């Protein structure tokens, strides 16, 4: 179906090719997962399938890419639209029209499909993707999962034989991500569509993939194989695979189900793991007391009460729209609560400004680029020094400590996702706030970058900062959080030590806990490192 | 009648009919009647949508137009009549500007004439506002001929980009607070502008890639000769239409320039549109039907517009009431009847459907 014949792609001005001498053949009806670190060339590979690279992006493509016999050299993306459906990373920026139904029809209109056929396909697609209830809604009013499904539906109506998706679940909560992945699986099974998918959070998709293409980056040759072959030694692997590697299971388990069936002996050895001692926490720095907030008529927080102490790492979890971001913006004083009080060090954050505010509490927003406005990293650092009224050069020193690989004359927008978050974190940290908030920090981060971020957060907590992160990433929460707070509909529905909250929860349990859990209430290690430590202690 | 949205083009025709009627008279009673009719239909048939509040906006703009017209008349134009209200200090201009007067006497007659003319313009604006309230701009663009398709897409994209830009600005302004900076003043605005524009640019590039991937701009082959013919027909048709409309609205222009030229221009333009439309291979999803209600609106437009045009040509008394001496305007019954015809759609067209689902929570929270 898709053929790459010795393809080398070099972007204009780049010293070395992004992809070199790629030979890849993807057959009809396959679900191929493209994995690799951020910036390794995954997106380039995907976008070469429908000719966006190089027709749209520029650069040179040597070799040949054909899809169902059509050469991308002679067929620009628009002439492949009936064959390849391309779902970009951010669905909102790809929408052309303003309502669901019209968006679904747009590709077909461009292809000149007869009105009667269009009508039928729109109805079918609405049903297939479960969008019937929202068919005449404006796209702006949809939730993240719905938007992603509309984006998939919008290319499906053209009846493409290949579907290409670039990180379709990165912005979604676990529930919505399941929804989208289930849809994809159904398309592969029922319609025989070939799916090529790039994804960072492998734990969700690994078990569905027929083959994996690992893009090592730096123009090194691709590694292609079945999931269990590839997962044996690539640096990016989900927790369940890492656990399998640690326990020397053969063949390597790819899903929690596989792993559980082999984990009997490991469970026994870990049975009497002592309950982790509650970490020492310092003085209380944040008090939130019966706080309410709303958007117009719609309540976002309905009386939240929460204390945060120095040295704690709190993971704030819950589905999209549960009030996590609202709580964080109330904490930094971006919005005043309708009722109740929020106090940082006994002060009202909404009344603080300038150095008084950023010296107490700092937030790394979901879009970390929002914090950045200058054209070099160095200028950004100098600005941060001035804002925080600290000696010149402090931020640069701090940044070099956190991420030595960032060059000061780079443009902040050219940094990788992980580097940008680290830069934003350095800017916030230089004012040495007692409380650090992060909104969805692991969006688009690969496993090694995530591990680095986790290490940084743990160090911060050890130095006495309080850290609160809103996240959908259960593995990160298990890794760093000392306490988990679950929000639903603007209310706290669970609050306690991480192990108590996540073990036994189908949505919030990390993979290792799912594999090792036996009886409810029993203490199990939550992460691979914890298993490692426990094994070392017992042997 | 089942609730449905009537074709936006039909509402525009209806509004143009009223606007043409308004253009033929300065009788304040008739003009008031036209505004009332437009307002009544808007109140009865506007859908629940953001654009449907534009009627009031256009009425307000109309008031401003009247005020400006009267102020200009008072300060700049030569007075009519003899009933002096006030005398402003006048300025004698050099010979170069002979004929232009600044200040001087303000007469009741000239004020009245200015009011009538301003009101006529305001009424035409109200008709446009009514069409705006009743017809969804997005659906109108969908109904635009294939040749205007690219233009339509760029407008739709601009319309959907605006709210996103506002959201971006909001986010970046809060981010400035997170860095401990002030939002107020020029520096605050300038600091937010760069990231907002960068974000918008990035989004446009993404959108362009997405549109390309989805088949936007697929074209059928065309010969250069056909292309030249298309362009020629479009330009000639447009020029003819412009002259025709001008002649029709300007009562002092020779009659042979008006309607005939307009018709010729429309025909040539339609040929051009058809030729240009052949280039794209697009089809339309669920085009709005043109059925009973749409024909009714067309009929109303023709009756109202044409009646006033004919009455104007016949010189029916009462269409342009005298301002010197000022008299209470008479009401020509035929004109009243013709305008009232355009109120029929308030009863005879299907009502717009009520929205089914309210906005979702997430959207408001996002």
Can you put this structure into words, describing what you see?
The complex is a heterodimer of chains A (539) and B (366). Chain A has 21 helices and 19 strands. A 6-stranded mixed β-sheet of chain A has the order 6-7-8-3-9-10, with helices on both faces. Chain A has 539 residues and is an alpha/beta fold. Chain A is globular, with a radius of gyration of 24 Å. In chain A, strand 18 and strand 19 form a beta hairpin. The model of chain A has no long low-confidence stretch (mean pLDDT 87). Chain A folds into 3 domains: 2-236, Rossmann fold, CATH 3.40.50.300; 277-360 and 433-498, Rossmann fold (3-Layer(aba) Sandwich); 372-430, no CATH class. Chain B is mainly alpha-helical. Helices cover 64% and strands 4% of the residues of chain B. Chain B has 13 helices and 2 strands; from the N terminus they run H-H-H-E-E-H-H-H-H-H-H-H-H-H-H. Chain B has helices at residues 8-23, 28-45, 54-75, 108-134, 137-143, 149-178, 185-213, 224-249, 259-277, 292-314, 333-341, 345-348, 361-365; strands at 84-91, 102-107. A two-stranded antiparallel sheet of chain B has the order 1-2. In chain B, helix 1 (8-23) packs parallel to helix 10 (292-314), helix 2 packs parallel to helix 11 (333-341) and helix 3 (54-75) packs antiparallel against helix 4 (108-134). Chain B starts with 7 loop residues before the first helix and ends with a helix. At the A-B interface, helix 3, helix 4, helix 5, helix 12 and helix 13 of A face helix 6, helix 7 and helix 13 of B.
């Amino acid at each position: 179906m898709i053929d790459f014949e010795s393809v080398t792609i070099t972007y204009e001005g780049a010293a070395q090719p992004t992809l070199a001498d790629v030979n890849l053949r993807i057959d009809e009806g396959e679900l191929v997962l493209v994995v690799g670190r951020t910036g390794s060339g995954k997106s380039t590979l995907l976008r070469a399938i429908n000719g966006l690279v190089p027709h749209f992006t520029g650069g040179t493509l040597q070799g040949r890419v054909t899809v169902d016999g059509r050469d991308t050299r002679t067929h620009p993306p628009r002439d492949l639209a009936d064959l390849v459906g391309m779902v970009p990373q951010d669905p909102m920026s790809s929408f052309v029209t303003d309502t669901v139904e019209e968006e679904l029809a747009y590709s077909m209109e461009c292809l000149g499909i007869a009105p009667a056929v269009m009508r039928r396909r729109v109805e079918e697609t609405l049903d297939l993707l479960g969008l019937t209830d929202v068919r005449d809604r404006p796209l702006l009013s949809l939730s993240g999962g719905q938007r992603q499904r509309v984006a998939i539906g919008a290319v499906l109506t053209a009846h493409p034989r290949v579907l290409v998706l670039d990180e379709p679940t990165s912005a979604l909560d676990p529930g919505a991500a399941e929804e989208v992945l289930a849809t994809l699986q159904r398309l592969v099974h029922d319609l025989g569509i070939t799916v090529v998918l790039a994804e960072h959070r492998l734990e969700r998709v690994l078990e569905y993939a027929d083959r994996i293409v690992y893009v090592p980056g730096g123009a090194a040759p691709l590694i292609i194989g079945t999931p269990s072959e590839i997962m044996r030694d690539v640096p990016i692997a989900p927790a369940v695979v890492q656990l399998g590697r640690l326990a020397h299971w053969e063949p390597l388990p790819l899903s929690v189900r596989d792993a559980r069936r082999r984990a009997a002996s490991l469970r026994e050895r870990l049975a009497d793991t002592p309950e982790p001692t509650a970490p020492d926490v310092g003085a209380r720095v944040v008090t939130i007391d019966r706080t309410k907030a709303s958007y117009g008529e719609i309540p976002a927080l309905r009386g939240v009460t929460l204390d945060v102490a120095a040295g704690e790492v709190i993971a704030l979890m819950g589905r999209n729209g549960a009030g996590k971001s609202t709580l964080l913006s109330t904490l930094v004083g971006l919005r005043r609560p309708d009722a109740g009080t929020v106090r940082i060090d006994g002060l009202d954050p909404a009344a603080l400004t300038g150095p008084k505010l950023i010296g107490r509490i700092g937030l790394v927003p979901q879009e970390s680029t929002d914090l950045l406005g200058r054209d070099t990293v160095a200028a950004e650092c100098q600005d941060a020094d001035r804002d925080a009224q600290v000696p010149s050069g402090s931020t640069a020193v701090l940044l070099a400590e956190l991420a030595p690989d960032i060059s000061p004359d780079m443009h902040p927008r050219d940094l990788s996702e992980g580097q940008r978050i680290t830069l934003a974190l350095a800017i916030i940290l230089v004012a040495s706030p007692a409380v650090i908030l992060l909104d969805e920090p692991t969006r688009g981060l690969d496993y090694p970058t995530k591990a680095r971020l986790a290490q940084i957060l743990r160090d911060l907590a050890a130095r006495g900062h309080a850290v609160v992160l809103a996240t959908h990433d259960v593995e990160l929460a298990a890794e760093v959080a000392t306490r988990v707070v679950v929000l639903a509909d603007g209310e706290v529905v669970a609050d306690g030590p991480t192990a108590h909250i996540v073990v036994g929860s189908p949505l919030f349990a990390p993979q290792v806990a799912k594999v090792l859990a036996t009886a409810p209430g029993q203490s199990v290690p939550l992460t691979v490192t914890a298993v490692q430590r426990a094994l070392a202690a017992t042997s | 009648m089942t609730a449905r949205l009537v074709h936006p083009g039909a509402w525009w025709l209806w509004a143009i009919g009223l606007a043409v009627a308004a253009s033929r008279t300065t009788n304040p009673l008739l003009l008031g009647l036209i505004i009332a009719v437009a307002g009544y239909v808007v109140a009865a048939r506007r859908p629940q949508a953001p654009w449907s509040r534009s009627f009031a906006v256009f009425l307000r703009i109309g008031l401003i137009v009247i005020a400006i017209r009267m102020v200009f008349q008072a300060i700049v134009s030569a007075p009519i009549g003899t009933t002096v209200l006030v005398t402003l200090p006048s300025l004698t201009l050099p010979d170069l500007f002979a004929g232009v007067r600044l200040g001087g006497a303000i007469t009741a007659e000239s004020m009245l004439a200015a009011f009538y003319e301003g009101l006529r313009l305001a009424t035409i604006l109200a008709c446009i506002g009514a069409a705006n309230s009743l017809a969804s701009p997005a659906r109108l663009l969908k109904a635009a001929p294939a040749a205007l398709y690219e233009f339509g897409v760029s407008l739709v994209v601009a319309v959907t980009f605006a709210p996103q830009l506002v959201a971006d600005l909001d986010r970046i302004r809060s981010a400035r607070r997170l860095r401990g900076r002030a939002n107020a003043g020029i520096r605050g605005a300038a600091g937010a502008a760069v990231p907002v524009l960068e974000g918008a640019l990035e989004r446009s590039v993404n959108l362009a890639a997405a549109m390309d991937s989805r088949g936007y701009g697929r074209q059928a082959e065309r010969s250069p000769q056909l292309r030249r013919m298309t362009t020629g027909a479009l330009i000639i048709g447009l020029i003819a239409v412009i002259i025709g409309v001008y002649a029709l609205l300007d009562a002092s222009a020779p009659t042979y320039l008006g309607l005939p030229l307009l018709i010729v221009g429309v025909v040539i333009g339609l040929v051009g549109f058809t030729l240009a439309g052949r280039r794209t291979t697009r089809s339309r999803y669920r085009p709005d039907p043109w059925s009973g209600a749409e024909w009714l609106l067309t009929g109303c437009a023709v009756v109202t517009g044409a009646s006033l045009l004919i009455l104007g040509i016949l010189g029916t008394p009462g269409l342009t009431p005298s301002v010197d001496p000022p008299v209470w305007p008479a009401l020509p019954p035929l004109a009243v009847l013709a305008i009232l015809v355009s109120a029929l759609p308030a009863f005879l067209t299907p009502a717009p459907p009520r929205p089914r689902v309210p906005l979702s929570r997430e959207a408001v929270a996002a």
